[in-house]
């Protein structure tokens, strides 16, 4: 239970015990509560006052399966709000095994200075000058890092976009094979890392000093129950390994809710060519991997390896949200192009979602035609080249909308929506509008509730309440380090009770479901409080006008949840 | 009997040999047949909780299948 505090201004490194007020927190709970308490809400996100907090979930570092999600928090340069972005990979487990509750990056290096932060197998940290790595793309960078520091090393890093401090810059996380293909993409946290003067955080995976478990026997039992629940759940046991998240392309298009051509339509013509099953077939034919272990301790394997016609690796884990942003939004129905765009974004270090939507807004404004693969690849390459237009694109869709004086920008609080149109899935619109971090599907996604017929996506009834409940549940889940694909299997009574037992066995507590709910509420309250102090009001919890005015085919419906109803989401 | 077009997607596609991704097939069910009847005829067990979507709407298991309709079917999936 220790904090590793790195001050980039004077290059000091301190290790301290976790203060009382932050005990029992991990992941998003820790990043958000700490940022709310310690970061000046009106500070410049790219200045020395902002903090970049890297926190594994409180179950990361235990031997529990699927618990290697890393939360990265800061004030966001994209939204101006508080932000937590989480990613898979191996780094959360590596930090957890060192008993590191959070790495806290403060201050700012002098202009032009750039460093690695290296954490060894004892948990000792060192800032290493990294001037020779300036401007490097993430794949080449991580390859060199692994050659220098050994293969059993986890890396969080930025690419040229983060160094350029672009508002859609990501922080890339290395996967089990040492590829920087997992991303904390949302909110532009790569720009915060770049502004601090940090190119990479390098963590030895050989740590052997995790925080002790209060009741190891009970933990072991609970862990067995969790594995059983995951193996028995259809989604985690066979839908995810077969199709990955790309399995959502067919359902969401069938429901007319796949925002396409910059959200002008709810179905992409030719979506069958980029569906999960089409992708799996293509990967199989070419000898790639349709299922792959992306993150440490994973037993679900939702990941994949997309290869070209020669069987050469193009990108790792081509996922639903990227297929949507680079495919649906741009009208590109070609998986090879989408895979190349995904790789390019990971390599440059930009969010695939914000970037795909930014390209779509540019196309909608007449800069290129929808479906023009070459134009899309050219535009994204411009980000790495640092051209004027590349900078605009790398600052996300709102910046592109301003540049072209084009109002049809599907973003809330500066961040693009995800792959569910609010006009055909009203509850996801509620989440996009009210999430304290800008439009964010991971904060409370109702698609599962629609597909399991718990509510009708086109009727107002139940949308606010379901979004609220999911936002609370996800705020709590994001504290633990559990991956969503496993978490879904723990929503039933047996899995849920095993998960609760694991938490209690870790801390020696007797928490019940209400306490977990209270944790979620506490996190959301801290996030809302920060935003209020930063100047955000209820008026910011709104969707762009066109969602209220422009009917979406094929249902030809608009977003009908009133402002008054939206303002009740956080009535707690 | 009434004719329907059924398009199995995702993991359900593999149950029907020789179907390309997204390709549909003709199915006949009794007039007034429900979602439940359709899934039984297709041999998809209840425990799969398959989702049936017609004209963009997710149907409930006791909903009547509209004659001549085109139905997309798949296993439930969550997103996060
Ligand atoms: S299911 Fe996917 S996201 Fe989750 S831990 Fe496994 S590879 Fe990572």
Spell out the blueprint of helices and strands.
The complex is a heterodimer of chains A (572) and B (80).
Chain A: E1 2-7, E2 12-17, H1 27-38, E3 52-56, E4 70-75, E5 82-87, H2 91-97, E6 100-106, E7 115-119, E8 125-129, H3 138-149, E9 153-157, H4 160-163, E10 171-173, E11 182-184, H5 189-196, E12 198-204, H6 216-232, H7 234-243, H8 249-254, H9 276-286, E13 289-292, E14 303-307, E15 313-316, H10 320-328, H11 335-348, H12 352-364, H13 373-385, H14 388-394, H15 397-404, E16 411-412, E17 415-416, H16 426-434, H17 447-451, H18 463-477, H19 484-487, H20 493-507, H21 513-533, H22 546-549, H23 563-566
Parallel strand pairs in A: 1-6, 7-12
Antiparallel strand pairs in A: 1-2, 3-4, 3-6, 4-5, 7-8, 9-10, 9-12, 10-11, 13-14, 14-15, 16-17
Helix pairs in contact in A: 1-21, 6-20, 10-11, 10-12, 11-13, 12-15, 13-14, 16-18, 18-21
Chain B: E1 2-8, E2 25-29, H1 35-41, E3 51-54, E4 57-58, E5 70-74
Parallel strand pairs in B: 1-5
Antiparallel strand pairs in B: 1-2, 3-4, 3-5
Residues 66, 88, 240, 293-295, 298, 300-303, 483, 485 of chain A line the site of iron/sulfur cluster.
Low-confidence stretches of chain B: none
Radius of gyration of chain B, in Å, reads 12 Å
Q: Can you summarize the main beta sheet of chain A?
A: 6 strands, mixed
What small molecules does the structure contain? Answer: iron/sulfur cluster
H-E string of chain B = EEHEEE
**Major sheet of chain A: order of its strands?**
2-1-6-3-4-5
Average pLDDT of chain B: 91
Q: Work out the strand percent of chain A.
A: 5-15%
CATH homologous superfamily label of the domain at 2-204 in chain A: Aldehyde ferredoxin oxidoreductase, N-terminal domain
Q: Tell me, what is the CATH class of the domain at 2-204 in chain A? A: Alpha Beta
Number of DSSP-assigned strands of chain B: 5
Helix content of chain B: under 10%
User: Mean pLDDT of chain A, nearest integer?
Assistant: 97
Number of continuous helical runs of chain B: 1
Specify the CATH architecture of chain B: Roll
The 3D shape of chain B can be described as globular
Q: Provide the CATH topology of the domain at 2-204 in chain A.
A: Aldehyde Ferredoxin Oxidoreductase,  A, domain 1
What would CATH call the class of chain B?
Alpha Beta
């Amino acid at each position: 239970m220790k904090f590793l505090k790195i001050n980039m201004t004077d290059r000091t490194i301190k290790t301290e015990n976790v203060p009382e007020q932050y005990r029992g927190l991990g992941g998003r709970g820790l990043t958000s509560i700490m940022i709310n308490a310690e970061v000046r809400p009106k500070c410049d996100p790219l200045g020395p006052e902002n903090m970049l907090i890297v926190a594994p979930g409180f179950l990361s570092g235990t031997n529990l399966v699927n618990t290697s999600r890393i939360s990265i928090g800061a004030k966001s340069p994209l939204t101006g709000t508080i932000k937590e972005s989480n990613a898979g990979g191996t780094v959360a487990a590596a930090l957890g095994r060192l008993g590191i509750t959070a790495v806290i990056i403060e201050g700012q290096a002098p202009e032009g200075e750039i460093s690695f932060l290296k954490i060894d197998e004892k948990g000792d940290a060192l800032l290493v000058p990294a001037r020779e790595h300036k401007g490097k793309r993430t794949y080449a960078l991580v390859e060199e890092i692994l050659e220098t520091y050994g293969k059993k090393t986890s890396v969080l890093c930025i690419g040229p976009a983060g160094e350029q401090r672009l508002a859609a810059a990501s922080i890339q996380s290395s996967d089990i094979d040492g590829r920087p293909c997992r991303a904390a993409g949302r909110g532009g946290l790569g720009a915060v890392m770049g502004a601090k003067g940090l190119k990479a955080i390098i963590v030895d995976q050989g740590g052997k000093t995790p925080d002790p478990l209060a009741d190891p026997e009970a933990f072991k039992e609970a862990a067995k129950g969790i594995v059983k629940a995951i193996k028995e759940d259809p989604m985690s046991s066979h839908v995810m390994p077969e199709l990955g998240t790309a399995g959502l392309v067919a359902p969401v298009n069938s429901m007319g809710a796949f925002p396409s051509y910059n959200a002008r339509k709810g179905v992409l013509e030719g979506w069958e060519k980029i569906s999960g099953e089409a992708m799996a077939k293509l990967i199989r034919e070419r000898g790639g991997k349709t299922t792959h272990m992306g993150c440490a301790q994973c037993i679900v394997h939702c990941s994949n390896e997309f290869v070209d016609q020669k069987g050469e690796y193009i990108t790792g884990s081509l996922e639903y949200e990227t297929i949507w942003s680079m495919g649906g939004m741009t009208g590109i129905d070609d998986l090879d192009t989408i895979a190349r765009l995904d790789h390019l974004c990971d390599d440059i270090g930009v969010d695939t979602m914000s970037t795909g939507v930014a390209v779509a807004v540019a196309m909608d404004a007449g800069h290129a035609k929808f479906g023009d693969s070459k134009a899309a690849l050219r535009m994204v390459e411009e980000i790495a080249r640092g051209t004027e237009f590349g900078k605009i694109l790398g600052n996300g869709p709102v910046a592109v909308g301003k540049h072209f004086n084009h109002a049809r920008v599907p973003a809330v609080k500066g961040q693009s929506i995800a792959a569910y149109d609010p006009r055909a899935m009203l509850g996801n619109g509620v989440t996009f509008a009210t999430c304290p971090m800008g439009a964010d599907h991971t904060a409370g996604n109702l698609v599962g509730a629609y597909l399991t017929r718990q509510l009708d996506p086109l009727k107002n009834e139940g949308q606010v309440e379901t979004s609220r409940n999911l936002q609370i549940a996800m705020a709590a889940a994001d504290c633990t380090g559990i991956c969503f694909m496993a978490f879904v299997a723990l929503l039933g009574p047996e899995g849920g009770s095993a998960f609760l037992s694991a938490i209690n066995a870790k801390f020696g507590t007797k928490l019940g479901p209400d306490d977990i709910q209270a944790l979620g509420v506490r996190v959301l309250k801290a996030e809302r409080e920060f935003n209020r102090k930063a100047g955000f009001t209820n008026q910011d919890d709104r969707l762009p006008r066109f969602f209220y005015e422009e009917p979406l085919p094929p249902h030809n419906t608009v977003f009908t949840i009133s402002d008054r109803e939206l303002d009740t989401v956080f009535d707690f | 009997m009434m004719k329907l077009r059924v398009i199995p997607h995702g993991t359900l596609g593999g149950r029907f040999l020789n179907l390309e991704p997204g390709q549909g097939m003709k199915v006949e069910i009794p007039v007034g047949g429900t979602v439940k009847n359709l899934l039984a005829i297709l041999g998809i067990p209840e425990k799969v909780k398959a989702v049936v979507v017609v004209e963009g709407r997710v149907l409930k298991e006791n909903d009547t299948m509209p004659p001549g309709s085109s139905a997309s079917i798949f296993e439930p999936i969550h997103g996060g």
